[in-house]
Task: inverse folding
């Protein structure tokens, strides 16, 4: 399915979403001829300080300053989005949200489920990662994680697709087809030595199935050995100079928290390249 309706989540606190992430997201929308709904989340910070903390520092003033910075960042993001909409990019609709620091993901979920693709900035802040995890496992849509270091225009010279024969891997490849059609080089990779593969012999069939969509891919097999599978996969991507990694996301909920699979957790937390994940 083509990506005609794209949800872009933008943050204002603790740091605003970088300009290059915004530019890359709009360039992706332009590549697919899609429209963007940009959810500008201005985080509302409750005053939860204790009396003792208040005696040591003026917490109320600190929170007020953070709220002013967030409002200024939101205004700047909206200005840039409005300007971009006038310079040849697809339609941009701005969705103004006042978000709870702990509930941003749930506030966006309804919009995410009505989108073809969700783009989430991925950085070191735990709150941002929580949003990414909520979207991956709760939206039912493919989620593109863009690191702070992404180029202003996403190149698709090399795309790596992780394959283990599982349901989530199959879903990810199906969701990624619009990206794969723009890729110059596609490398299907399966890792051995970590766990039994659900469809070890199916990677050649997958290669043929992609050919039926006019998508040509090569196949690599890599041994995990003593390292973690997440490290092996990200190191492989680095050696291939990959511009995008496509993979299924493993995880489940426990006591209302997300428990990520090992490879998924490593990639979300450590991979310095864009990642398209589906669950």
Result:
């Amino acid at each position: 399915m083509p990506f005609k309706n794209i949800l872009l989540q933008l943050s204002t606190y603790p740091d605003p979403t970088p300009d290059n992430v915004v530019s890359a997201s709009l360039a992706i929308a332009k590549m697919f001829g899609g429209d963007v709904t940009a959810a500008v989340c201005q985080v509302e910070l409750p005053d939860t300080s204790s009396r003792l903390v208040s005696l040591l520092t003026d917490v109320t003033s600190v929170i007020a300053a953070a709220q002013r910075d967030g409002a200024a960042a939101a205004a700047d993001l909206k200005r840039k989005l409005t300007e971009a909409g006038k310079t040849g990019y697809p339609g941009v609709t701005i969705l103004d949200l006042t978000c709870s620091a702990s509930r941003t993901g749930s506030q966006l979920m309804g919009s995410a489920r009505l989108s073809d693709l969700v783009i989430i900035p991925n950085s070191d802040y735990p709150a941002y990662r929580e949003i990414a995890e909520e979207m991956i496992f709760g939206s039912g849509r493919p989620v593109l994680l863009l690191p702070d270091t992404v180029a202003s225009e996403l190149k698709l010279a090399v795309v790596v697709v992780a394959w283990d024969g599982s349901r989530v891997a199959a879903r990810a490849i199906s969701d990624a087809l619009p990206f794969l059609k723009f890729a110059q080089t596609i490398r299907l990779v399966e890792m051995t030595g970590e766990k039994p593969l659900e469809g070890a012999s199916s990677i050649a069939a997958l290669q043929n199935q992609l050919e039926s969509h006019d998508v040509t891919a090569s196949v690599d097999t890599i041994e995990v050995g003593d390292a973690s599978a997440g490290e092996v996969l990200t190191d492989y991507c680095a050696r291939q100079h990959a511009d995008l990694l496509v993979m299924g996301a493993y995880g489940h909920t426990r006591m209302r928290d997300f428990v990520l699979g090992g490879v998924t957790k490593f990639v979300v937390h450590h991979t310095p390249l864009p990642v398209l994940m589906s669950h």
Residues 149 and 272 are 7 Å apart (CA to CA). The longest strand covers residues 35-44.
